[in-house]
Amino acid sequence: MLLTSLLQSSYQIEDVPKPVFEFIKSILKGRNPIGVIYYGSSLWKQDLTGLLDFYIVCEDLSDWYQDQTGCYYANKFLPPNIEYHEFNDDEVSLRAKVAILSLKQLRRATGLQSIDTTMWARFCQPVKILWVRDQAASQNIFRCLVRAVTTASWWAAFLGSKENEGKEFWCNLFSHTYQAELRVEAKNRPMSILENREDYFTQLLEAGWRGLGIPFTKTQDNRYIVNLADMEREDAHKKWKLRQCLGRPLNIARLIKAAFTFQGGAEYIAWKIKRHQGIELHLTPFQKKHPLMNAPWIVIRLYHQGVFKR
Predict the structure, then answer these.
(1) How confident is the model at residue 237 (pLDDT cuts 50, 70, 90)?
(2) What domains lie within the chain, and their CATH numbers?
(3) For residues 114 and 139, is the Cβ–Cβ distance under 8 A?
(4) Which domain of life does the protein's organism represent (predicted)?
(5) CB under 8 Å to 294, separation ≥6 — which residues?
(6) Could you give the angle at which helices 265-277 and 291-304 cross, rounded to 10 degrees?
(7) What global pTM score does this model have?
(8) What is the C-alpha to C-alpha distance for residues 71 and 77, in angstroms, rounded to an integer?
């Protein structure tokens, strides 16, 4: 099956609860993006009690940051910017982490040459295109999702073993991406992403490899033998080493940037560090109120606790 056919499920939004669409409408009020992508564990688990994850895609960042020059340039040079939104009605209370980026940034970040692994690693997982401005926007965003899966499939082949089950190629890939980011996840986290979707991910893998021309054979017991030269694998591992070396500093820089561009940025950093590194930053009311002034303290504290070396 073609990759584009498999990914048509991203348009199937009938099972998304109505309050989520109302939430999106409130976030977009007065703005002019081209589309909204819904992703993450709240989508897979259909759980609205946690933090929802949205990516808002703009034709140009100025369409979102009309009167926020600082945020515009911060996002231009180190995407994406993060916002926190809440929505309450008679039925439900929702909260979301909203990432803002341009279509150009999305194209670049989902491509094979991207040093940053965060976006293609997310968008190769099940997502929903919740809202688009027009048909052209829909096609452009969809192409980026295809690029993300294609990129993930390439890395799954070159970072994986020569022979394995389809799900193991994905688990190995996600473990590699976690190591390249500021994330410490439970050992079963990759498998939880695949849970009840093993067949779908295996089909994605096959379609991605066929589209890329990666030679493979499927055994009678549903294992895959990937026929790549040792030299090609070694070259790919060198390229990944670069992404791994730069990944954590890049994501730490994003966390520090959040203190400048994200309302409640200091609390956000503390929450993120505790969740993914197990280090608790006890912030005083003054530090919460003046995150910019206290950013050096945060960096020094993280350095002494070894975050940059993990």
Answers:
(1) very high
(2) 3-228 (3.30.460.10), 248-309 (no CATH)
(3) no
(4) Bacteria
(5) 259, 266, 286, 287
(6) 20
(7) 0.85
(8) 10
